[in-house]
């Protein structure tokens, strides 16, 4: 009994170790809003690779390891001074993976049969081969609370996120409703191609056609099957229509399911 009591006293005397705070859902949302579709200038050569290029939280990276990972790839993703875009962000247990310039994804369909304006047609893939890459910020522990600016500081030796960048200067010239849409990664009627690129990144597919009246339109398609597909239609360099549908694995599309209250 005395031995058990002594063990109990010893256990009670030990300091209680509080669990370390972890990245919250709100943190993730803020990071997505602050980094998704963000532009930066490459301060080092970024090789193309299907595996994420590792970077420590202090900004250190191993050029030799990067070169080894990039063997067999056809040229770099970006050279020093090139403008790159973060096109996707993925959170893992102990790292954050940033997709750069579309990563190494292959387009989900070479030709997709869609129905727009009552006519069916094929949309050809305008991007033949992947030209992007990935960067992984390694924490070596569960992700702590973070903001997008924290990650930008970690990547400062590799990527230059200029506060007074040409991208931000261009956004300032847009009407308020378009500025809001760009920040929310949405497309609205009236946007230019440059504004759509800032809001959504590069499209998966493009196609052009001319109607009976001689009006030439261009369709940009975003999204992967299965899931939401966004069709952006341009005429005279401006968005005239935005349409969202849902595609199954076969590539066929259906109207967006009605939301609550529809």
Task: Provide structural commentary.
It contains seven helices and 15 strands. By secondary structure, the protein is an alpha+beta fold. It has two domains: 20-109 and 130-162, no CATH class; 175-262, Beta-lactamase Inhibitory Protein, Chain:B, domain 1. The strands form four sheets. Strands 3-9-6-5-1-10 form a six-stranded mixed beta sheet. It has a five-stranded antiparallel beta sheet with strand order 11-12-13-14-15, with no helix packed on it. Strand 7 (111-116) and strand 8 form a beta hairpin. Helix 2 (25-35) packs across helix 4 (148-154) and helix 6 (176-183) packs parallel to helix 7 (193-200). The longest helix is centred in the first third of the chain and has 12 residues, at 2-13. The protein is globular and about 90 Å long. The termini are far apart.
Number of strands: 15
Dominant shape: globular
Radius of gyration: 23 Å
Count of alpha and pi helical runs:
7
Structural class by secondary-structure content = alpha+beta
Q: Quick check: average pLDDT?
A: 79
The largest sheet is: 6 strands, mixed
- Please, how many domains? 2
Could you list the spans in which at least 5 consecutive residues all have pLDDT below 50?
107-128, 256-262
Helix-strand topology string: HHEEEHEEEEEEHEHHHEEEEE
Strand order of the largest sheet: 3-9-6-5-1-10
- Name the helicity range: 10-25%
Taken as a percent bin, the fraction of beta residues is 25-35%
Rounded to the nearest angstrom, the distance between the terminal CA atoms is 70 Å
